[in-house]
C-alpha cells in the first residue's frame, strides 16, 4: 500500500443487506445521473459511511464507480445525438485542474480550522451554491413550463459571450455554438472545484453549460457525463494509487447504477427540455435543506452555536434522510414523466395506425 | 420517380407445368385486373408499395404482391425462414392496411424459385395481370424474360440529397427497417443472455476470490491500474447487458428522437462542383 493512511484502513465485511442497499442506491443514483448528467452519487458517500465504510474508502469507491457509469451513460446519450464530445473533453481537462485547486483549498482549510471547519466549509458551499443555482434553474424551468416548453431561446448571457470574438474561438457542432475557450475555462474550473468540495460538480457544470456557454439542457446534461468521466478517471487513478478503492463496493454500486443510467438516458428522449432543469432544481433545493440541517453539528464543534446533543443527532439523521428523499423525488419525477410520455407516444402511434 | 418499361416480346412457346402453391391457388384475384408486385426481399420498398397503390387506385384494379425466395436451398439467403415469414407477414399486413385506406384490394403470396419463372407462373394463373412491378434488387431483364406483360421498375431518388439509392443500399435499408421489428426483440434477448452470463461470471470471479482481489487491488502504486481496468471490463459487459435488457423489455428511446437523429446523420454535404470553368482574363 502507498501512503500512511492506507496502512490503517479497514475494509468492511459485506452481508446481504449491505449488498441490496448498495445496488438499490446505485440504481437510483444512476437513474438521476443518466437524466441530469450528474448528481446521483452524492448520497452514496454518506450512505456507505453509514454502513461503516471509512470516509476515504467511501469517497474513493464512489469515484471509481462514477467514471464507468458516466462512460456508459455518455455512450448511450451519444447514440441519441445529445453529446458534444469536444466540449466535454475540453471541459473535463480544465475541470481536472479545478479538482486539484479544490483539493488544495480543502487542505488549507483543514490545516487552518481542523476537520469541523473543513466540514462546515463543505456544508456552507453546498447550501450557498445549491440555493443560488437551484433557485435560478427552478425559476427558469417553471417559466418554460408555463410557456409550454416547446421553443428554446439562447440565454442572454450566453448570447452575449458568444458574440465576443476572443482568440481562441471554438466551434462545437453538436452543441451548435461558437464561443471563446476563455469562457469555457472558468465554468470548467468551477465544476472541478465543486466536485472536489461536494463530490457533485454537475450542479455547477450543467447550469454553466446551459446559461453561460449556451447549450440546451439536453446537450448540457449529456456533455456533463463526458466531463464526469474525465474527472472521475483522473480522481480514481489518484485514489487507487493510494490503495483506497474497495473494488467490491464499486462493483456493487455499478451493478445497480448501470441499469439506472441507461434508463435515465432513455428518459431524456421522451421529456421536454425544461424537465431536466426541473428535476435538477428540485434535487438541488432539497439537498440544500439537507445540508443546512447538517451544519449545526460542525458549528457546535467550532463553538459558534450551542445546540443540545440530542437536537444535533436528530438534525444529522434528518439530513441524511432528506438527502435520500431528494434522490427518490428526482427518480420518481423522471420515471413518472418518462412513462407518461412513452404511453402518450404509443397512443399516438396506435391512433395513426387506426387512421391508416 | 422514373419509370422504365421493358416489353417482353418473346412469346411463351413452352408451357411449363405449373406447380401451384397452396396460397396462390386460393388467390381470389382471377376475375379482376391486377398489378403484380414482385420482390425477392422479405419486404417491399415503400416507394414501390406507394406507387402500386396509387396506380391501382387510379386504374381501379387490385394488387397482388409476391414475395419470392430465390434461394430456397440456401436457408433463405442466410435468413432464418421463420424470421423471414414473420417479416413477410408484417410487411403484407402493413401493405394491406395501406391499400385498404385507399380502397384498393390487396393479397400477397409467398413463392420460391427463379424470378422469371415465378412471374410467368403467376401471370398465367391470375390471368388478368395488367403489368408487373418489380422491387429493388431484381434485374429488369430477368423479370422481363418470363413475363407476358410489361414490366416496370421504380428508381427512387433521395430528393433531399439528390443521391440515388442503388439496389444494394435499398436492400440494406429494407433489411434494417423491416426486419428490425421481427428480429430486434429476439436479438436483444439473445444479447441480454450472452452479456448477462458474462457479467455474472465476472461478478462471481471477483466475489469468490475477494480476498485475493482485495490484497492486490489495494496495494496502490502500479496496482492502481487493476481496479481501473476491472471497471472498464465490467462497464463493457454490464453496460451491454443493461442496454440490451431494457431493449428486450421494449423500453427504448423515443422514436421521434431517434428518427430525428437518423435524419441528421443522413444529411450529406453537397459535393463541390469541381468542373473546369471558362475564365475570362481582361
Question: Which helices and strands occur, and which strands form pairs?
Answer:
The complex is a heterodimer of chains A (356) and B (282).
Chain A (H helix, E strand, L loop, with lengths): L3 H5 L7 H21 L7 H7 L4 H25 L5 H62 L9 H8 L5 E4 L4 E4 H18 L3 H12 L3 H25 L5 H22 L4 H29 L7 H47 L1
Antiparallel strand pairs in A: 1-2
Helix pairs in contact in A: 2-9, 2-10, 2-12, 3-4, 4-9, 4-10, 5-7, 5-9, 5-11, 6-8, 7-8, 8-9, 10-12, 11-12
Chain B lengths: L1 E5 L15 H4 L8 E6 L6 H14 L2 E8 L11 H21 L4 E7 L2 H12 L2 E6 L5 H6 L5 E5 L1 E2 L4 E2 L2 H42 L1 H8 L7 H24 L6 H12 L16
Parallel strand pairs in B: 2-3, 2-5, 3-4, 5-6
Antiparallel strand pairs in B: 1-6, 7-8
Helix pairs in contact in B: 3-6, 6-8
Structural class estimated from helices and strands of chain B? alpha/beta
The pLDDT mean of chain B sits at 74
Q: What is the H/E string of chain B?
A: EHEHEHEHEHEEEHHHH
The count of helical stretches of chain A stands at: 12
- The stretches of 5 or more residues of chain B where confidence is low (pLDDT under 50) are 1-30, 158-166, 172-178, 266-270
CATH homologous superfamily designation of the largest domain in chain B: HUPs
Terminal Cα span of chain B: 45 Å
Distance between the termini of chain A: 69 Å
Main sheet strand line-up of chain A: 1-2
**SS elements, strand count of chain A:** 2
Query: Which chains make the largest contact?
Result: A-B, 50 and 44 residues
CATH topology of the largest domain in chain B: Rossmann fold
CATH architecture grouping of the largest domain in chain B:
3-Layer(aba) Sandwich
Sketch the major β-sheet of chain B: 6 strands, mixed
Could you tell me the mean pLDDT of chain A? 86
Described by the principal axes of the CA atoms, the overall outline of chain A is globular
The whole-angstrom Rg of chain B is 27 Å
Amino acid at each position: 500500500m502507498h501512503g500512511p493512511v492506507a496502512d490503517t484502513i479497514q475494509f468492511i465485511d459485506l452481508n446481504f443487506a449491505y449488498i441490496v442497499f448498495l445496488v438499490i442506491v446505485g440504481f437510483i443514483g444512476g437513474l438521476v445521473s443518466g437524466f441530469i448528467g450528474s448528481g446521483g452519487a452524492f448520497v452514496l458517500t454518506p450512505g456507505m459511511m453509514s454502513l461503516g465504510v471509512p470516509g476515504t474508502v467511501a469517497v474513493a469507491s464512489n469515484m471509481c464507480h462514477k467514471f464507468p457509469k458516466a462512460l456508459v451513460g455518455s455512450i448511450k446519450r451519444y447514440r441519441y445525438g445529445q453529446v458534444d464530445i469536444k466540449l466535454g473533453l475540453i471541459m473535463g481537462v480544465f475541470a481536472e485542474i479545478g479538482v486539484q485547486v479544490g483539493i488544495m483549498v480543502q487542505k488549507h482549510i483543514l490545516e487552518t480550522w481542523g476537520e469541523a471547519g473543513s466540514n462546515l466549509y463543505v456544508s456552507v458551499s453546498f447550501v450557498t451554491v445549491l440555493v443560488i443555482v437551484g433557485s435560478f434553474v427552478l425559476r427558469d424551468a417553471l417559466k418554460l413550463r408555463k410557456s409550454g416548453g416547446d421553443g428554446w431561446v439562447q440565454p442572454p448571457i450566453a448570447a452575449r459571450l458568444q458574440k465576443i470574438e476572443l482568440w481562441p474561438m471554438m466551434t462545437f457542432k453538436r452543441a451548435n455554438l461558437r464561443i471563446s475557450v476563455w469562457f469555457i475555462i472558468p465554468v470548467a474550473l468551477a465544476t472541478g472545484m465543486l466536485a472536489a468540495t461536494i463530490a457533485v460538480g454537475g450542479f455547477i457544470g450543467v447550469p454553466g453549460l446551459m446559461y453561460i456557454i449556451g447549450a440546451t439542457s439536453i446537450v448540457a446534461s449529456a456533455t456533463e457525463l463526458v466531463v464526469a468521466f474525465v474527472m472521475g478517471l483522473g480522481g480514481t487513478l489518484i485514489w487507487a494509487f493510494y490503495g483506497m478503492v474497495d473494488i467490491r463496493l464499486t462493483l456493487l454500486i455499478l451493478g445497480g447504477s448501470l441499469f439506472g443510467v441507461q434508463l435515465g438516458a432513455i428518459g431524456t428522449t421522451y421529456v421536454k427540455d425544461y424537465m431536466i432543469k426541473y428535476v435538477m432544481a428540485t434535487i438541488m433545493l432539497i439537498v440544500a435543506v439537507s445540508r443546512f440541517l447538517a451544519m449545526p453539528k460542525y458549528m457546535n464543534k467550532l463553538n459558534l452555536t450551542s445546540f443540545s446533543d440530542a437536537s444535533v443527532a436528530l438534525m444529522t439523521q434528518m439530513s441524511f434522510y432528506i438527502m435520500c428523499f431528494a434522490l427518490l423525488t428526482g427518480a420518481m419525477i423522471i420515471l413518472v414523466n418518462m412513462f407518461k410520455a412513452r404511453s402518450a407516444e404509443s397512443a399516438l402511434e396506435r391512433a395513426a395506425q387506426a387512421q391508416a | 420517380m422514373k419509370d422504365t418499361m421493358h416489353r417482353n416480346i418473346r412469346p411463351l412457346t413452352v408451357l411449363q407445368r405449373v406447380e401451384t402453391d397452396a396460397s396462390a391457388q386460393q388467390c381470389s384475384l382471377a376475375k379482376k385486373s391486377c398489378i403484380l408486385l414482385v420482390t425477392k426481399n422479405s419486404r417491399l420498398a415503400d416507394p414501390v408499395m406507394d406507387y402500386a397503390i396509387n396506380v391501382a387506385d387510379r386504374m381501379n384494379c387490385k394488387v397482388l404482391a409476391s414475395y419470392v425466395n430465390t434461394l430456397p436451398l440456401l436457408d433463405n439467403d442466410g435468413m432464418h425462414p421463420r424470421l423471414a415469414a414473420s417479416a413477410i407477414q408484417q410487411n403484407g399486413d402493413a401493405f394491406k392496411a395501406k391499400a385498404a385506406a385507399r380502397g384498393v384490394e390487396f393479397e400477397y403470396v409467398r413463392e420460391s424459385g427463379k424470378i422469371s419463372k415465378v412471374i410467368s407462373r403467376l401471370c398465367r394463373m391470375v390471368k388478368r395481370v395488367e403489368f408487373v412491378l418489380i422491387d429493388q434488387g431484381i434485374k429488369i431483364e430477368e423479370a422481363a424474360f418470363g413475363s407476358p406483360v410489361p414490366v416496370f421498375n421504380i428508381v427512387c431518388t433521395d430528393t433531399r440529397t439528390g443521391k440515388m439509392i442503388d439496389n444494394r443500399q435499398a436492400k440494406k435499408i429494407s433489411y434494417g427497417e423491416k426486419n428490425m421489428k421481427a428480429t430486434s426483440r429476439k436479438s436483444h434477448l439473445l444479447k441480454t443472455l450472452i452479456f448477462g452470463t458474462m457479467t455474472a461470471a465476472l461478478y462471481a470471479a471477483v466475489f469468490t476470490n475477494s480476498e485475493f482481489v482485495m490484497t492486490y487491488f489495494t496495494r496502490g502504486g502500479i496496482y492502481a491500474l487493476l481496479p481501473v481496468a476491472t471497471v472498464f471490463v465490467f462497464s463493457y459487459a454490464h453496460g451491454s447487458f443493461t442496454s440490451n435488457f431494457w431493449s428486450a423489455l421494449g423500453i427504448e428511446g423515443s422514436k421521434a428522437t431517434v428518427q430525428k437523429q437518423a435524419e441528421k446523420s443522413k444529411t450529406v454535404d453537397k459535393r463541390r462542383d469541381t468542373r473546369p470553368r471558362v475564365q475570362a482574363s481582361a
